[in-house]
Specification:
The chain is α/β, with parallel strands linked by helices. It has 2 domains: 129 residues, Alpha-Beta Complex (Aspartate Aminotransferase, domain 1); 252 residues, Aspartate Aminotransferase, domain 2 (3-Layer(aba) Sandwich). Helix content is 38%, strand content 15%. The protein contains 14 helices and 15 strands. The strands form 4 sheets. A 7-stranded mixed β-sheet has the order 2-8-7-6-5-3-4, with helices on both faces. Strands 11-12-15-14 form a 4-stranded antiparallel β-sheet, with helices on one face. Strands 1-13 form a two-stranded parallel ribbon. The radius of gyration is 22 Å and the shape is globular. The termini are far apart. Bound molecules: 4'-deoxy-4'-aminopyridoxal-5'-phosphate. The site of 4'-deoxy-4'-aminopyridoxal-5'-phosphate has 14 residues, from helix 4.
Length: 416
Amino acid sequence: MSQLNPIAAPYTTAPIDWNAIRADFPLIAGHDLIYFDNAASSQKPKVFLEAMENMVKNSYANVHRGVHRLSQQATDQYEAARKTVAKFINAADEAEVVFTGGTTDSINTLAYSFGEAHIQPGDEILLSGMEHHANIVPWQLMAERKGAHIKVIPVLENGSLDLEALDALMGPKTKLLSLVWVSNSLGTVNPIPYLIQKAHAYGIPVMVDAAQAAPHMPIDVQAIDCDFLAFSAHKMCGPTGLGVLYGKRHLFEPLPPYRGGGDMIDRVRFEKTTFQGLPFRFEAGTPHILGAVAFASVLAYLSNIGMRQIEARERQLSSSFRQQLQQNFPEVNAIGTAADSVSVVSFLVKGHHPMDVGVLLDNQNIAVRTGHHCCQPLMDRFGIPGTVRASLAFYNTEEEIERFFVALRKTIQLLR
Ligand code: PMP
């Protein structure tokens, strides 16, 4: 495997030993903990630690600015990481991949820069009712600054989008559709290729929040034809504080910068500063060098398992979880029952606050998330304070699901 382009490793077609893969994760392998909080952040494999250690021991320095050997080696590795990400999402050009601090940072960057370039008073940004706050608040801040309005695609009772409402919501004033691919609260997989086609028919560019899609399925930005796409490394077995903002070059490059300083400049004078093109235009200051390099190794690791295989396993685990929950627990209400979903199962134990359920599960060594999951408008839509959310990853097992249900049964008895 080439060190500079680790993703060049061939995709495997052999049957996968998921137990061996689980053994790659030091915090869960051989431990009693059942970790079902993967949508919040996923666990880290040994390759992540090894890549960090390797760079710290052999080739760490600041990037881009140094003539010395170490700085050049670090720069080569950092830029190779960008290529690895570009390949992972099938970007046409690695310059279209900007490293950010995470999905939230990516969307703030786009909302500011796109807003400055394109938004006039009275314009509209179209979102959906199942967005994470990270895909609502940056647009609201921009809309308030620019006198624009937010429109919202409604969510149906089963947790899918009301596609029939689309035509009435799109028009000449709609300047962007920004939409989550996989809901972090419900697990719903939105029909992103269809929605992009539909928006493009109105001449509306589309930004995809892929924070919960990139960890669970192959992403091909050219095939879906999205204009912008964001995701976080820490939800895909990589580091915190690192994310990606992808954008089609002809739309992304002309946008004004969001932050100033460091590598984003071309020439600084007190009278006027000129800026770099992509990708440096949007990478002010010293980037997360170690994180990006380690993330490239993690992407190689995931690609080696195969994102299709990961998707198939996670769909199977989460649908088995969902089925058993619905069949065997009449005391439970499933929230979000859309036909297409992955990884996330959200529910309520009737008559009980999700927090109480979460604490009792934690007492039995099970990590789930409870609350509004940063989707307060979605919780309001269902008239609930929050949910209990189990979110599964490929390193989880059917046996853990069985143990979860024993613990849930006990939790319901204790609550009575
Ligand atoms: N969008 C979605 C769908 C998410 O699930 C999350 C994280 N929960 C975010 C955005 C924000 O990601 P981050 O906190 O990594 O910036």
